[in-house]
Amino acid sequence: MPTIIIRADSSSEIGTGHIMRDLVLANKYKNAKIIFATRNLNGNINDKIIENNYKIEILASNNINEMIKIIKKYRVDMVVIDHYGIKYKDEKKLKKKTGVKILSFDDTYEKHYCDILYNHNISANPKKYKGLVPKHCELRCGSKYTLLRDEFIIEKKKKRKKISKKEKAIFIAIGGADHSNINISILKVLKSFKKLNINLVTTNANKNLVELKKYCKNKKWINLHINSNNIAKLMRKSDFSIVTPSVTVNEVYYLKIPFIAIKTAENQYDIYKYLKKNGFLVIKKFNSDLLKKAIKKILKTTR
Length: 303
Hints:
Elements: E1 3-7, H1 17-28, E2 33-39, H2 46-51, E3 55-59, H3 64-74, E4 78-81, H4 88-98, E5 101-105, E6 116-119, E7 138-141, H5 150-157, E8 168-173, H6 183-190, E9 196-202, H7 209-216, E10 222-226, H8 231-236, E11 240-243, H9 247-254, E12 259-262, H10 269-277, E13 281-283, H11 288-301
Parallel strand pairs: 1-2, 1-4, 2-3, 4-5, 5-6, 6-7, 8-9, 8-11, 9-10, 11-12, 12-13
Helix pairs in contact: 3-4, 6-11
């Protein structure tokens, strides 16, 4: 049985997306022993790893020497690196010291020393990796490699029922940590529209959760979902969604849910640029007036 180590972190600052997509990838290696190497940072979702019955090695730092010791300890066959803090020189040292096969995630066209380069975003362009990875490196780029949890695949197969309803259902997902703290600002914009029913998803990694709960309290038009396991169902029954140009866009795109994408981080720029070029509704930085215009536009096209 091969052994695979996945190096990724989650926190209120980093967000939860890395761990969530790594759990999907891990599920594809059913005949392997999977170990997650992660730090115990504030607002982490390490409980999700445990919930999925994977072993965890808690790291003290991002120092690559710590990873090398763990790889040797478990006689690892492959290491998955999904971490912006681990660079080309670290991957090269790791390969030199252990000879392990390396799969590196990348969203921003950085230089990597790996055997497999994984960019599963709908905007991914393999041509941009020329000169950034070794010649032998296998490129897994684009929507055909998008990592989707089973719930999305199951939901996609279902026929979407057309229900005559007075209210429009809107799905909001601005990252599990919402480090940009714009959830309430979005809700305030939506408040000016009539007959809307909101499903807003977030996690305990959101350091603004107390404030968000307080705002949502006693507002019947807002349904706040914390650590939900029914994301695909909530998306599927929505008329449109407000998300970030990140992993979540891959999901709403797959389910063919109309969306408005608001960029909240620099690592989302490539998807943002791709969506803008292809005529999708995008906002470079949160702006209440621009969001209001985008909502008015999308409401005209959804029935």
